[in-house]
Amino acid sequence: MPYAAITYRVKPGHEDEIAELFAAFRRVDTPDFRDARGAPAGRLLGTAVFLRDDVLVRVIHYEGDFGAIARHMAGQRGVHLIEERLAPYLVQPRDTSTTEGFTDYFRDATMRCIAELSVATHPGGGPAA
Predict the structure, then answer these.
(1) Has residue 32 been placed in a domain?
(2) Using one digit for the tens of pLDDT, what is the confidence trace for 39-62?
(3) For residues 23 and 8, what is the distance between their CA atoms, to the nearest angstrom?
(4) What gap in Å lies between CA 98 and CA 115, rounded to an integer?
(5) pTM (2 decimals)?
(6) Which of 8, 16, 100, 123 could pair with 56 in a Cys bridge, judged by C-beta atoms 3.0 to 4.6 Å apart?
(7) Which of 105, 110, 82, 100 is CA-nearest to residue 3?
(8) Is position 119 within any domain?
């Protein structure tokens, strides 16, 4: 299952405030997401958020069409709440209030994946019996 990482540049010195924002994050209404036509496109398997100094990274574990995740997330009230609360801590303001603005930022902030390793790709062929 693939992973993706989204970066945010934040103002250093606000780590505790930012951690509190994410501790109260309202999860998506469903992990299942659809494409632009409404057909099933995949599933969010998990997320994790990491923070160090001025870099915040959200790691997304998913299956399916990564492009459809941004549209799904853009329609989630909890995502918009965290975006609003995070705005004062961002180094560069951005408009994620619309689906287009959110998907543009999501696309532009996605880190290049240079390796994905898992038990399934291990030369030993998976978990020990």
Answers:
(1) yes
(2) 999 999 999 999 999 999 999 999
(3) 17
(4) 32
(5) 0.84
(6) 8
(7) 110
(8) no
Taking CA atoms, 49 is separated from 8, 61, 104, in Å, by 11, 12, 20
Give residues with Cβ within 8 angstroms of 18, minimum separation 6. 10, 51, 56, 86, 89
Q: Quick check: is 20 in a domain? A: yes
Tokens of 84: 């609003």
pLDDT, one tens digit per residue, over 64-119 is: 998 899 888 888 888 888 989 999 999 999 888 888 998 899 899 999 999 988 88
User: Whole domain around residue 108: which residue ranges?
Assistant: 3-113
Residue 122 lies in a domain: no
The domain total for the chain is 1
